[in-house]
TrEMBL record:
Alphabetical list of NCBIfam families matching this protein: yjeF_cterm (TIGR00196)
Binding-site list for AMP: 447-451, 476
Gene name in the database record: nnrD
Protein name in UniProt: Bifunctional NAD(P)H-hydrate repair enzyme
EC id: 4.2.1.136, 5.1.99.6
Organism classification: Bacteria, Bacillati, Actinomycetota, Actinomycetes, Micrococcales
Length: 549
């Protein structure tokens, strides 16, 4: 058990949020469920990795870890120099050297490169530099120079090694401007990125490749950090014994099977359509008819048993024409069905096992009535777009995934009394997604180029989009449909007492699974050309199958 507040709940005098579930007892330690493979990559706050490194070393002058880091850095520098037929001997490498251990990494790496015939120059950008690193560079025949020569040296350089600031960065650092055509290899994390949050200074030094030491840092996988790090190579420094529980995990395509944890037995193979999952969809309006169609098509394309739809008149015809698989529900049928649901739970024919609510929905009396009725029936549900605007914070007993983009998260937090700016959210997205998860007692899937899925106890999974082209109108509606199908097919551990944390972790994993399928469909569609939401739909069946669904 962790004590309230959990570690990510940093003091903020502007806000006092009463969590929907106020009992500290609900907040269990983030636990790796037995059976997880190492494919989910653990992520740690940069400051925790820094503390672990310090704890691992015998004394402040011990350079064992630094030399390990420098070897890895030099190795990647060699690969970059040799790529595209480049030469190593006589290649010009400039190191941007800062005042601390990050600068030390850079100096030892330059020394290793100098020994291999590279013309290695350390540009000393701070009043002091790591003494042993400097001595090693000089012994190996490397050179040092000062900031005033940087611009002229940059004109004729094959590679820059950015070893200015790592996990020790404080706000306000002055960073040199590196022309965009110069290739950059970052030591640990690009200088200018906050290793705890991913917030990047406007003058951040963008890298083509980053060698990350000891463990993957949160700042490299969310916020702007993951957009400026290039390809990331993690080196093992044997820190496991000194690291706390991970801050989050990065999940990738290979992890889908683990995340879904589907029943693979012969009995499951014999399931009829109602057992494969019945999804209810409440979506669309005269203003946004297309959103309902996109969600419906995404749901049926991702392997659903049956789709039941509750849409306004203006959308009904379009839906029947474009999604012939869907079966409309009228008001009376809906009422009867929800009553059966309340009595008998979610299993069996003609009952709805989950709901997808919100794409294209507008706030009016009819929609509110449907929404209240459906929420009361207590099936697992995904709530998006228009439904988010109608939702109130607070405790409930339903399994809910909310899928806001950053703007919607801002509104959700404002409704919960959390005064936070859009910039605050962009600067530390995991933190604010966690606040919303607590305030709304749900799993939050925060959309963006790095999608963050988090439960109220802070358990967090991160999914990266393979292409920025996913940021296109209707793409989120497709995601809602996918999530609906996954929810409809899922089984959840018993709904009683202590299992709430397990339930919310399972829900977080389903959310991440949906984001993975969406991201993979995006990658497949982008390989064919520019991308629309309909292109995404067309790639969905292939994406789901390739990931093992
Ligand atoms: N610990 C280990 O054993 C290992 C560490 N490793 C490597 O070390 C990195 C962490 O090293 P680090 O702790 O020395 O911090 P680093 O990022 O070099 O910068 C700190 C220096 O910059 C200064 N500074 C910061 N912001 C500033 C600003 N705005 N304006 C001006 N100055 C500013 C700051 O000043 P201070 O805050 O002390 O006043 C301090 O002097 C880590 O990322 C990894 O690369 C690996 O080799 C493995 C072993
Ligand atoms: N820069 C980006 N790179 C990659 N994917 C992105 C980026 N920005 C947004 N996305 C993804 O695109 C989708 C957009 O969803 P949303 O904003 O709800 O769009 P809409 O409401 O038009 O359907 C989400 O899945 C989100 O994660």
């Amino acid at each position: 058990m962790v004590t309230w507040p959990p570690p990510w709940w940093l003091p903020n005098d502007k806000n006092t949020l009463v969590p929907a579930r106020s009992a500290a007892a609900d907040l269990q330690e983030f636990a790796l469920t037995v059976g997880y493979s190492e494919r989910m990559i653990p992520v740690y706050a940069g400051s925790h990795v820094r503390d672990a490194e310090t704890a691992q070393l015998k004394d402040a002058n011990d350079t064992t870890l630094m030399r390990l880091a420098a070897d890895a850095l030099a190795h990647q520098a060699v690969l970059m120099l040799k790529s595209d037929g480049g030469r190593l001997y006589g290649a010009r490498v400039l190191g941007l050297i800062g005042p601390g251990n990050n600068g030390g990494d850079g100096l030892f790496a330059l020394a290793a490169l100098a020994k291999r015939g590279v013309r290695a120059t350390a540009v000393l950008l701070a009043p002091q530099a790591h003494a042993q690193g400097l001595a090693a560079l000089v012994r190996s025949g490397g050179r040092t120079t000062t900031a005033k020569h940087l611009d002229e040296l940059l004109v004729d350089t094959d590679l820059v090694v950015d070893a200015l600031y790592g996990t020790g960065l404080r706000p306000g650092a002055e960073l040199p401007k590196i022309p965009s055509q110069v290739r950059v290899l970052a030591a640990d994390i690009p200088s200018g990125v906050d290793a705890n949050t991913g917030a990047a200074a406007p003058s951040v030094i963008r890298a083509d490749r980053t060698v990350c030491f000891g463990a993957l840092k949160t700042g490299l996988v969310v916020g702007s950090g993951h957009l400026v790090s290039g390809s990331i190579h993690i080196t093992d420094a044997g820190l496991t014994d000194h690291l706390p529980k991970p801050d989050a995990w990065v999940v990738q395509g290979d992890d889908l099977e683990l995340l879904l944890d589907r029943d693979q037995s012969w009995a499951a193979a014999g399931a009829h359509k109602y057992q494969r999952g019945v999804l209810g969809l409440l979506a669309g309006s005269a203003k946004y008819p297309g959103a309902a169609v996109l969600s419906a098509r995404a749901a049926v394309a991702s392997g659903l048993g049956l789709l039941r739809t509750v849409v306004p008149e203006a959308v009904a015809t379009a839906l029947t024409t474009q999604v012939p698989e869907s079966v409309p529900l009228n008001t009376e049928e809906l009422t009867a069905l929800l009553a059966r649901n309340r009595r008998n739970g979610r299993a069996g024919a003609t009952r709805i096992s989950a709901w997808a609510i919100g794409p294209g929905l507008v706030d009016n009396a009819e929609t509110r009535q449907y929404l209240d009725q459906i929420l009361e029936a207590n099936n697992p549900c995904v709530l998006d777009a228009g439904a988010l605007a109608m939702l109130e914070p607070g405790e409930h007993h339903q399994l809910r995934i909310l899928t806001p983009h950053a703007g919607e998260l801002h509104s959700l937090l404002a409704k919960a009394g959390v005064r936070v700016s859009a910039t605050d959210i962009a600067t530390d997205p995991i933190r604010w997604a966690r606040w919303a998860a607590v305030a709304y007692d749900c799993v939050i899937l925060l959309k963006g180029s790095a999608t963050i899925c988090t439960a109220p106890d802070g358990y967090a999974l991160i999914v990266h989009a393979a292409t920025p082209d996913l940021a296109t109108a209707g793409s989120g509606d497709v995601l809602t449909g996918i999530l609906g199908t996954l929810l409809a097919a899922a089984t959840f551990p018993s709904m009683t007492g202590a299992d709430e944390v397990t339930q919310s972790h399972r829900l977080t994993e389903l959310a991440a699974a949906g984001a993975l399928i969406h991201a993979h469909a995006g990658a497949l569609a982008a390989a064919e050309g520019t991308l629309s939401a309909v292109d995404l739909l067309q790639e969905l069946p292939r994406a789901a199958r390739q990931l093992g669904l």
